[in-house]
Amino acid sequence: MGAFGKTLMVAAAFGLGLTAAANARDLRIASGAPPAHPSNGYLYKPFAEYLAEETNGELTTIELGTEVVGLGQMKDALQTGLVDVGNLLPLYFPAELPNFALAGELALTGKDAHAMSAALTEYTVTCSSCQDELSAFGMVYLGSGSSDQYALLTKTPVSNAEDVEGLRLRSGGAPYSRWAEHFGATPVSVSVLETFEAMSQGTIDGSMASIGDLLAFRLIELVENVTLLPLGTYFATSNLTTAAPTWASLSVEQREAMARAANRANADMAQRWGYDFPAIAEKAALEAGITIQEADPAFAEAAAEFAIADQQAAAAISAERFGMEDASERVEEFIRLVEKWEAISEEVGHDRDAIVERVWDEVWSKVDFATYGM
């Protein structure tokens, strides 16, 4: 090829690049979480990169910080169009999203972050009533994430059930409140963002939370003891919730590409929140002189037994509160999916890349993006 031909090829490529850039569309995205939280650097930042990659630059992003929209304002931001893609916490709106509320009631069943993320993703994507309530809410679901298994983060040593009695513990939801009351503690409803202040002022004696909260919310300055026992995970999330009008405006190919990007980012989030960040927090805690201990075996066994018994409580509550006549069947289906994905996660060694592939094959590859979310 002569010099003139090469020049034409370069010019054509340059022209295509300019055309793609000119046609690129910016989506406004928001994690709603503080800078140290994994949902920033390990969910929304990779999602932005993956989205541009999966759409060949057709869809790019502008990230809005908490000074524009926080977690508490995310519903309104999505419904008014301020945000195209946002980190929605469905448990803030149980009446409108009862299927997520049911999942949230099963928090104590969680053990493995990748498994819980995948189980809720499959449950929500394939559940017609879940899709109906999300549609009525004006939002499209693109997957979930999960924390590591919760622990007791306290000012005083806790080894057995007797040590818990009388403590005031921050509860992130009804299952944790039931757990605290069962073991003689007092649950206190405090926003995770207000945990530091509540503990420093003596309003609470500790928190039932991810060990990562030691770093994400500065609790490392106050906590003196971490007790490990079966306390479930926080997984009732909708990580990359998309406003329905935004979704409807995308081509079928762009929707599928967006789902691919979300699937990759959700796995990043679970990997960080459920595995990597807790390991970093544990190391920091030990360096800070915090005691980390396994619960007394009898206490751990009692906690595990309560988690199983609490599944029926979750079904009963959902049936009464939301009129779910099939609540018991839904609980059984969700537990079946949890067991399925726990086995898969164990099979692949909790490998992030393998989970991305399996969730796509098992869930998203079966979705018709011409109709999903519409």
Automatic annotation (TrEMBL):
The keyword Transport applies. One of its GO terms (cellular component) is periplasmic space. Pfam families: DctP. InterPro entries: DctP_fam, TRAP_DctP_sf. It is found in: Periplasm. One of its GO terms (biological process) is transmembrane transport. It comes from the Bacteria. The keyword Flavoprotein does not apply. Keywords: Periplasm, Signal, Transport. Residues 1-24 form the signal peptide. Its main location: periplasm. Belongs to the bacterial solute-binding protein 7 family. This is C4-dicarboxylate ABC transporter substrate-binding protein.
